[in-house]
Design brief:
Peptidoglycan recognition protein; PGRP; 18% helix; 471 residues; PGRP_domain_met/bac; Amidase/PGRP_sf; alpha+beta; 21% strand; eight-stranded antiparallel sheet; Lysozyme-like
């Protein structure tokens, strides 16, 4: 990454076999340029007003988030094949948002350029400095040929960037130069590379977290659960109570007993790590009505791919649920995926969060490593770890999670395994590839993810996970 720019147990067959991509109109936030073109009004596809007064919501209920999407406008008179090499938007005094990104029409098109943004804080009223937005360029997503990948709703996108509570934005996208950038003086036309068509700025308000689930008689406060929310909680009832906001940690002995129960045997497979505490989707406040209905599973979990979200490090651990809600909304409403792409997320304090719905003990098909989503899981550390070192707590979180989840499927964190490529930029479709059981994203796809500093810690995660398994 360049830094700038089937069925589920307990569910009806109709629900459990649903496969697809969430139909989402990615909608947008007004941004205005100091040009007449930038004075264009708000997109007609606004998904929801941000934190409106007098919503009529039940007392204490969650305030829904929103996604706004506005087309970028040219910042220069230059044109290459009808596309301006510099595009952007500026607007102050807009509805609040906390996460930004840029999307475009073709998910297979790559953005070769630099994406930068600055935002105005609602707390201080001051503008931030310019921040780079990582371009991603197709390295995440469902495998080629799958229903999720081929949906007409899927778009190309940058990484999302967490900017905190903001009410103003200034964005610029500048195409790379073809060939030697040093040969250009900066005056006149060409040779610019062509930016993807349909560039749009996404402004995401993650909304407020829902209150704790109350008793049925208290539904007037919390609101009734949707079918999707019920199915999501039910997917974890093999190991926790319905509606749990977190799955508690277990000792290794208790974990082995639980695994034996799940396997219907007198004893568990050897070498499973103690189950760590996991914050469920209800715990971080997922709006289950956003995602596609139903769950999709693969056969097993043979490997874990470690990622970073590339969303920046300017978040507190108390904000982690909001960051995840923002990424979830960006993946579904802006990028057109069926759900958040990662199976799990880990924050800088080492807290572990359930990602894609379907049950934390199960082999849920994610959209994290293009070409290698089958029989694997994706773990994203929240933050950007190219130059910044990940915290020891985050690395420990990876180790504890993989010791447990890989142990459920009998995998040794220090070993290597074979996965069949679904098609990507490193390995052609159908190739049997030997990979570390705990791999970095870059091992399966040509990318900088999970960042040089986090990738350097994967050896530590492997050895720690193996030790937690008792190896």
């Amino acid at each position: 990454m360049r830094g700038f720019l089937t069925s589920s147990p307990g569910l009806s067959p109709a629900v459990a076999s649903s496969i697809g991509v969430a139909c989402a109109a990615a909608l947008a936030l007004p941004l205005a340029l100091p040009t007449p073109a930038a004075a264009a009004g708000r997109s007609a596809h606004d998904s929801a007003p941000a934190r409106p007064a007098g919503t009529g919501l039940p007392a204490g209920a969650a305030v829904p988030g929103s996604t706004r999407s506005l087309p970028l406008v040219p910042l220069t008179r230059d044109r290459v094949l009808g596309t301006a090499p510099e595009q952007g938007l500026y607007r102050a005094g807009v509805a609040r948002f906390s996460l930004v990104g840029v999307v475009w029409d073709d998910p297979d098109a790559e953005l070769h350029g630099r994406v930068q943004v600055r935002t105005r804080s609602t707390v201080t009223g001051k503008w931030s400095g310019w921040q780079d937005v990582e371009t991603h360029n197709g390295e995440h997503g469902a495998d080629p040929g799958t229903a999720e990948r081929t949906s007409r709703h899927v778009r190309g996108a940058t990484a999302p960037l967490w900017v905190g509570d903001s009410d103003g934005v200034d964005l610029r996208v500048r195409a790379d130069l073809a060939g030697d950038a040093g040969a250009r003086t900066g005056k006149g036309g060409g040779p610019w590379l062509v930016l993807p068509s349909g560039l749009r700025l996404e402004l995401v308000d993650p909304g407020q977290e829902a209150p704790p689930l109350g008793p049925p008689a208290d539904a007037s406060r919390t609101g009734p659960d949707t079918d999707e929310a019920i199915a999501t909680s039910a997917a974890n009832t093999d190991i926790t109570g319905f509606g749990a906001r977190e799955i508690p940690a277990l000792s290794r002995w208790a974990t082995e007993r639980e695994l034996a129960r799940l396997q219907g045997s007198a004893w568990a497979k050897p070498y499973v790590g103690a189950r760590p505490k996991i914050v469920t989707r209800r715990g971080w406040g997922a709006d289950e009505s956003l995602r596609e209905r139903g769950f999709v599973y693969t056969k097993k979990v043979k490997a874990a791919f470690v990622h970073h979200t590339a969303s920046g490090n300017k978040y507190t651990c108390a904000q982690s649920p909001s960051v995840i809600r923002g990424i979830y909304r960006y993946h579904v409403k802006s990028m057109g995926w069926r759900d958040i792409g990662y199976n799990f997320l880990v924050d800088k304090c080492g807290s572990i969060y359930e990602g894609r719905a379907g049950g934390v003990t199960k082999a849920v098909l994610g959209a994290h490593t293009l070409g290698f989503n089958s029989n694997s899981m994706g773990i994203a550390v929240i933050g950007t770890y190219g130059a910044s070192k990940p915290s020891g707590a985050a690395v420990t979180g990876i180790a504890r999670l993989t010791a447990w989840k890989l142990g459920l499927f009998g995998a040794d964190p220090r070993a290597k395994t074979y996965l069949t490529s679904g098609g990507g930029n490193l390995y052609p479709k159908g190739k049997n590839v030997r990979l570390h059981v705990i791999s970095g994203h870059r091992d399966g796809f040509a990318t900088d993810c999970p960042g040089k500093s986090l990738y350097a810690k994967l050896g530590t995660a492997r050895s720690s996970a193996a030790r937690y398994q008792g190896r």
